[in-house]
Amino acid sequence: MFKLKASRLSILLILTASLARTQTVTARSGNGSIGGTDGAITFLLGPPSGDFGHTFTADDFSSAQTGPAAFIVDPNPLWMSSLTADESAKWIGTNADAGCCAGNTALYAVSFEITNAFTSATLELFYAVDDAIGDTVINNGPNTGIYLNGSAACGGAFAIGFSEQHWVSCDVSSLMRVGTNWLYIEDGNVEGSAGLLFSATIIAINLSGAGLLVNVPGTAMPWLYSTASGGLNSTYQYGLNDGSNPVIVSSSNGINFSAGSKLTVTYLNGAVSVGPDIALPYTDANGFPGDTFANVPVELPGHYMNPVGYVSELVGTFTDNGGSIIGTPFALGDGPTTLTVPVGATQLQFGVDDDQYYNNAGSWVIQLSGSLVKSVPSIDGVGNSAVYSAGTPVAPGSIATAKGSFLLSSPSIAPSSQPWPTSLGGLSMQFAGVKTPLDYVSAAQVNFQVPWELEGSTQAPLTATVGSQTSAAQTVNVPRFSPGLYSMNAEGNGQGAILDSKYRLVDSSNPASVGDVIQIYCTGLGAVTNQPASGFPAPFKPLAETAARPNVAIDGVSAQVLYSGLTPGAVGLYQINAQIPNGIETGTSVQVAVTIGGIASNTVTVAIQPFPVAANPQPAITSLSPASAQAGSGPLTLSISGSGFIPSSSVTFNAAPHTASFVSSGQLTIALSTSELATAGGFPVVVTNPPPGGGSSNTADFNVSPASVPVPAPPTGLSPGSTTPPGVTVSTLTPTLSWNSSPGATGYVVVILNSETGAEILAQKISTTSFICPALVSGMNYGWSVASYNSGGLGTAATPVYFTVATVHTGSLTGSWQGEWGSIPDPSAFGSLSATLTQNGSAVTGTIRLPSSSCVPGGDVSGTISGNTLTLNLLVGPPQPMAIFSGTLDASSNSILGVYEVYLGACTGDYGLFTAQRSN
To answer: What pTM, to 2 d.p., does this model score?
Structure first.
């Protein structure tokens, strides 16, 4: 979800960059192919082991810049193969085999360009090294290891190690400059192999409101003057008219011009070429040690002087409202110039003191900072911090931007220790008494979190307070949602603040692929679960997920959202983790937009490359199963074994295409019909994989042999079964006969014989494995067998088995019964008994009658005979008996003596004895 340390720093830098003006530069090792050289990195060769033996000098840095190109080498088996933070970086060394067996200590040099003015700069370095960054770790040598423009950076505390990634970050604001910069890294070697793997990111930020930026064209005159004696500025009559008046800054620009106040003027960047006669380029305000008088080989000092002859010097002067110079003009060099406003001065004028040539080209950018004109603070507009536009709504919990006049002399940023303060740099802001957490304040801009307490409101008044002065209220719309996506430009429509799973910016140098998960950083997605207090960072566990689910459109196609909520450890910053969908147009500027609660965000871009499609393998067949079949034996499933099979593999059988079922990379199956197996022959089987790659396999032949009639075999497992008369006894007149064989394509003939006469009473062809006999005669013995049958005729019959149908007895019972009630005497408890019963084996069914009893009138009975015991159940509804009769059979007299007991009805509790005579 979110990493700490370096990855968290990267996120915060990107966010800061989105809220301000920024430039991000990446320098990495190994720009090229392994075995070649990296033309972007050169080196100064050191000793085979140990340190350089002296502190680096300007000549050393210069030699590193002009030295040979670094070799891109295969990593030593002990080294880590690549950086997880930047997989594009490769190992470099001082010779082609440095990654294998030898290498020298070296000072590597790589240049990068900073084109915009900046107020802060950070260097972030990921690296692995054999043996160490710098030589202080090796043997306390004099060199720390990382240098920017010849000065030591990042403190020199670096880890040793080539088997894992290390990280360091430091502020390089004072070491970096606008234009060309040089980063130097020393790889100190102890012995044996030496190599360096690194990725450096430099982020330069110009915080809005840090000062007034002034553009001075090369055609601007240095001041207004008159050739008349005593006329306007006649003392300083320099500067040909190139068509532009001086650039004027006054109190109308918000600068305090009261006498004695301090102003600082700083050259930032730019270049001016002198007119068409000589067209001399100057890369900064004082590019040469001095200015050269036209056609005279004399160098003049690089500052303002009275004599004539200055070429392309950036100069300025204080003037009054009429343009008359007050004090002495001054020149601007590379460094800042601090000025004190003289009495009577109301303006500063800037231009070029070129009195030799005209039609100059180019411009310089300077920065003017100082105390501001004191007044009441004012808020001009409020909007979403991701894409500011005055008057746009801002949602509770989101990061917003207010612009206006805030009476601050210098910007302030909330300390890294959180939560965000509600007072910063002497400024506070409040929504109807609810104070806002502040992240950044300046004279012209404030970045803050809209308090969560405003949830449920639609509008709220916002005021700003500096000291005792409070601004007029600005009415701000605060709906539930105001989505805004952060981008790397101020307009909010360029490269988005979107990272990959390794927390690297997804841009043209690091495109994502279809199917990858990207992290989209934004604000204004509304209420969340596990909501933190206003100004406090979002929790790590449990996460603060959005109550509503956003829709992410990448190139207009909805993407699957895996997470939507606050970024853990950050204030007001949301992130959406989404998977790049299929079916989109790829490129370096694919559009990304978010909609939540029916509100659409701004659109940013991201670099997406097509999903890398690996070449399909060429298939091969090793065997078929079955390997052959007999004509007329179909249909069947043919299994194809081999290698290189894929789900899109296709199969032909005898040149006819078949739908293949993918089982694994080593097995496919196809279905063969009866018609395809009707005739004998050899039929080729071929597997084909589609491009990219792919191709057809070798040919495997499937053989179909001529049809033959198999010899019928007798079935087995006859049931009931016994090979010796009288066999087994069955208790039903229609027994079920069964056997174990499966009929398949063969029918069966069932033959039933009377075992006493030998006469065949039934012969029938069937196709199942069981058969129900017609009604047989009780007490009769039967023999039966089964013979297999196919197109070849009747086969050998199974050995006959024998069974006997059990005798069925039908007869009646007559007798008397006597009993007593459990509650009251009743003469009806004495009477006669009669029954009609049928015995089939041990089962007994029939009816029973007790005509003298009003309690047990009789009814259907069921029961069993077990040995000499008869048990009958008088039923009132299955399966519940009303009464149970149990008696003992006397075979010699056919009499029954028994007991009964009533369970249900009005006579419950009646019990007694009964006697009966059996007749059957």
So the answer is: 0.44
